[in-house]
Design brief:
The chain is α+β, with helices and mostly antiparallel strands and 201 residues long. The chain is built from 8 helices and 8 strands. The strands form 2 sheets. Strands 7-6-1-3-2-8 form a 6-stranded mixed beta sheet, with helices on one face.
Length: 201
């Protein structure tokens, strides 16, 4: 199912969903991942204990104030992404990566599932040398697991400025649960996750 058609049905007049989830602890950190459709990777992180807030948006490009229309024109280096603010005392960066791998097809280089194009390519945007090391180790661990027959091609890239997406994209799965479920099913993401991870999602 075409995601742009779903957006047309939804309309841009939807009330903005609240970005917040719980009061922020004294010390938080931020992780940014790209995994194809940003609607589809948000629910898993929202459910994770220790995650304070998630925001979907765009990262990897240089044009200021990117819009959905600009990013999906595939004329920029932006990728649909998610910013995760988390409490490191409750969840680690490595654990966030474990969640991330279960939301994507890490062997797909041209996008994710039926979303094809540069803006849908998966990537881990590391913020410092420690995150880069953890991400590389996590990717190697997934490779050694034998879970996938094809090579793991998800990129590990230095972080760039993250721009929040428009309000109607935030918590889309809550704003439009039926359309969201139909899109996830139609894209093949749901069946892929069940096949590869079963109850480990």
């Amino acid at each position: 199912m075409n995601r742009i058609l779903l957006l047309a049905f939804s309309g841009v007049a939807l009330a903005a969903a609240s970005y917040g989830q719980t009061p922020a602890p004294a010390t938080t950190r931020t992780a940014v991942f790209a995994g194809g459709c940003f609607w589809c990777i948000q629910p898993a992180f929202d459910k994770a204990p220790g995650v304070v807030k998630t925001i979907v948006g765009y990262s990897g490009g240089t044009e200021p104030n990117p819009t959905y229309k600009l990013v999906t024109s595939e004329k920029t280096n932006y990728r649909e992404s998610i910013e995760i603010i988390y409490d490191p005392a409750k969840i680690s960066y490595e654990q966030l990566l474990d969640i991330y791998w279960r939301q994507i097809d890490p062997t797909q280089a041209d996008g994710q599932f039926t979303d094809i194009g540069p803006s849908y390519r998966a990537a881990i945007f590391y913020g410092n040398a420690d995150e880069e090391k953890i991400a590389e180790a996590s990717k190697e661990k997934l490779t050694r697991s034998g879970k996938f027959k094809r090579p793991i091609v998800t990129e590990i890239l230095p972080a760039m400025k993250f721009w929040p997406a428009e309000d109607y994209h935030q918590k889309y799965y809550q704003q439009n649960p039926e359309r969201f479920e139909a899109f996830e099913e139609g894209s093949g993401r749901t069946s892929f996750k069940k096949d590869k991870w079963g109850g480990e999602q």
